[in-house]
Amino acid sequence: MLKQRVITAIILFTLFLAAVFGLPTLGWQMLVLVVVWQGAVEWARLSGLSGRAASAYWLVTLALMAGMVWFDNYVSLQQQTSLHLVWYMLAVLFWVFVVPAWLISGWRPQNAWLMGVVGWIVLLPTGLAMMDLRAINLSGPWGPWGPWVLLFVMTVVMVADISAYFTGKRFGKNKLAPAISPGKTWEGVFGAMIGVTLYVIVVGWASGLYKQYPVFPSIIVAGWWWVALAVIGDLFESAVKRQAGVKDSGALLPGHGGLLDRIDALTSTLPFAAIALILQRLE
């Protein structure tokens, strides 16, 4: 299983690098639409929607995402910013307040379409963030910063995931949330914190960012928050899958399950990075 996971992860990461640095803006937008569509297909299953209801759900989700892409291409930056800010604020409120209460209470929504609305709050801000972070209009020694910013944000989550997996496997004893995800431990979370800290230090040293104070220490602290958000996203998807009575959200990725199994931590982290970008624009 581990070998299959590693092979799939390497292939996915290679394809991601090719896409994030090689695709034109329209091509990247189309890729984001595919990601959101596949996420909606899997979320419909987790929500209990099937048949025509499931098809209607992912069609509406795709239409909403496509509509926002079209809107972005024909309106001013100020109008685009206002729309995106609404979605990011919804995501922030959801992940900071709703999800912790959901996990603590063990809430089990009985209405499939209510779960569908939750899926929009999970998926649509993630898709918008994938576009906004890549489109950052700054230039650096290696070209536009946007792709590098998106790559850094996503690889922080990857490093946290890998560090937590191996640390938890080797040292894990104290369960983090045994009723939701028995395999996750506090030792794994601590290992993720260490792994992310080392990764940020290496990136900061290689890029020269370590010379900027207080920016660089702030990024390290943000990395710790990133780990916490990633854990929340991971636990939330685990809780939804457990409530749906399935082990994986799908079978798209060998060794990983579905797309949502691979991007669960990104759904809870990317909108926070994007809203930081939005607020920076408004200053």
Approximately how much beta-strand content do the residues carry? under 5%
The total domain count is 1
Measured distance between first and last alpha carbons: 48 Å
Average pLDDT for all residues: 88
Choose one word for the global shape.
Answer: globular
Q: How many helical elements? A: 10
Radius of gyration: 18 Å
Main β-sheet, in a few words? 2 strands, antiparallel
Order of strands, widest sheet: 1-2
Order of helices and strands: HHHHHEEHEEHHHH
Question: Any low-confidence stretches, pLDDT <50, length ≥5?
Answer: 139-143
What does the oligomeric state look like here?
Answer: single chain
Number of strands: 4
Relative helix content: over 70%
Classification by helices and strands: mainly alpha
